[in-house]
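Entry details:
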Amino acid sequence: MHALPHDHTGARIKRLRLERHLTQRALCDLAQVPYSTLTKTEQGTLPASPRLIAAVARALRVEVATVTGQPYTTELRADELDVLIQPIREALDVYDLGPDPEISPRPGRLLDDDAQGLLVAVRAGEIKRVASQLPGLILEQTTAAHLENTTQGWSVLASYYRTAYDVTSKLGHPDLAAIALARMDWAAQRASSAVVGAMSRYMRGLTYLRAGQYRTGQRLVHVGLSALEQADAGRERDVVTGQLHLGAAVVAGRAQDRGRAEGHLAEADRIAAATGDASDVHWLSFGPTNVAVHRVSVLAELDEYGQAAQIGRAVAMPKTWPASRKSHHFAELARAQMWSGQLDDAFANLLRARRTAPQQARYHQTVRETYAGLEAAKRQLPDSFLSYGSWLGA
């Protein structure tokens, strides 16, 4: 029995292609992808890589989420997460209405503590708890920021918007994630914070990476790095600068620009050697470990799967490292191992991704595509493998 028999990404690509009356050859020409890769992906015998998904989405003029099938509404409903999305959307929509006369915000210190707590919780993989608390806190801080009109108030509001981006992007709502980033940038401008503004551009760059618009993603990272030149010198600026270089490295890797990717990795590595572990600076998890896991991602984007798997196995993650980052690394390592034929190791890392941050792994596109690839490659599937597919939403 196949765990994902009918609606895998390849099947959606075929359906979208036929709706537009395109042959496989025609789509390959439009998307600039190999014919054999597309045909095997449509058949379900080859997993869809992020680069293929983005190229096909651009060629068909649809969103990446349409190709991947996100959001996964059945699973969201089963986890009672679907009802939490609309309140977030509504909270993001009142940003410019001024203070709400029916809201009496608590002291700023308490709201700041809650904002920091949500950043920690989402990195611990507690997506449902964060999603349930977030709308009310956004509304409260929106009123507080308008009433106080202080740098601190707007900065805290930008933090809540950042968490809205974290939650909605992890749950497969890219449209809402884009709105959250626009709100984050809006609040950063009112806070006159070059650092927060640069972070919002870094995150926007990642959204363009997922959409396959690599040039725009690179431009956004460049704008973010330029904005950081206005920030005060110090560890905070160094950490955010290093993180932007890591984002730029992945964008360059996806664009198959090895030289640029290696250059950004080298610069991030240099900065990390000076900052050391800086996981708590804006909760970006920056430091030598994050450089190492990004190197694995970049190598995978460059189709160097064997080397990515070899380096990925050697990454030693601190016990205090956020569960969300650990889970993401396990998913990336599993992808590299699957593509390099290390099927048992790949499934073991999918299990680790699930065990470390189950709510994140369940909605992680890399987890799903890697599982589909393993399913296509293995002739005999153990019960644990099939149950994993059921958990993903068979």
